Fold:
Amino acid sequence: MELPQLLECSPPLARRPLDAEQAAGVARVFKALGDPVRLRILSIVASREGGEVCVCDITGAFELSQPTISHHLKVLKEVGLLTSERRASWVYYRLVPETLGELSAIIGSPAAV
Structure:
């Protein structure tokens, strides 16, 4: 089962426990976010007016090689946090708001707790 499908059917933690497959899928996303570089990349994309960032702007924000940045972007795409679109020789990245919303719903707790 793909991660977005896992997240869609995953209940908030405060309502009922995740099954093993759901927990493994959600853990992949949190593992990806556990890296400081990937967390910074996500924040760069999220904070950009217009909601998208050219890879050239992401690479310029770090003292890391282009292949290293590409690896981090690939990880974020694989777990469903980012999507990309090639335009001529540049690639532009955007957040996948549904994935972030689903993560928020999973860890959110009802007001009564």
Remarks:
- Residues 37 and 81 are 14 Å apart (CA to CA).
- The mean pLDDT is 84.
- The beta strands are 52-54, 82-87, 90-95.
